[in-house]
Design brief:
With 177 residues, the chain is mainly alpha-helical. 66% of the residues lie in helices and 0% in strands.
Length: 177
């Protein structure tokens, strides 16, 4: 079986993570449209309606805290939309990079590992974001909301795993299970 270098695994993982992020966002956008949302995909995907920190979602708030903590200065509200987009995509791609490092080192990578990736990211979000004051505790969400969110994260994970497998060496040894 052909092996990839750690750098190659990171690069493949980042590309796969971008594909996973896009798949997850496509699902979330379909749900948005089915729920009566009328915004086009481009403006919805890039958070065109976010104007300041008051209406900024969790990814923007995380990005804000990272920048303000690192540079020790307040980030202007005009950066809320950019912070949202950069943090959202960076998180998906960095999770893919980590996935690539781990799965790139196993003898028999499986696309099913994406289920573990998606479920792990989902669970981590409900630990880290409430601790940061950006989400309510998991016990305060109803089962339908949690299940829908888990489903979107599972799609991210499986898409990331499938794209990672398709992009590199050892493709023929990757198994679906």
């Amino acid at each position: 079986m052909a092996r990839t270098t750690p750098l190659g695994a990171v690069a493949r993982g980042m590309l796969a993570g971008a594909a996973g992020t896009l798949a997850m966002d496509a699902l979330l956008y379909l749900r948005y449209r089915r729920g009566g949302g009328g915004e086009g995909f481009g403006p919805w995907e890039t958070a065109a309606t976010v104007r300041d920190w008051n209406d900024a979602p969790a990814p923007a708030q995380v990005g804000r805290r990272l920048v303000e903590g690192l540079f020790r200065r307040e980030l202007d509200p005009r950066w809320a939309r950019s912070a949202n987009n950069a943090t959202h995509w960076a998180y998906g791609m960095l999770a893919g990079a980590q996935y690539g490092l781990v799965v790139g080192s196993v003898a028999r990578p499986r696309i099913g590992y994406g289920v573990l990736l998606g479920a792990g990211l989902w669970g981590a979000g409900y630990v880290v974001l409430p601790a940061a004051g950006l989400y309510r505790p998991i016990t305060e969400y109803d089962r339908v909301t949690l299940a829908r969110d888990l489903g979107a994260h599972l799609l991210y994970g499986v898409t990331t795993a499938a794209v990672f497998a398709a992009l590199g060496p050892g493709r023929s040894s990757c198994r679906a299970g």
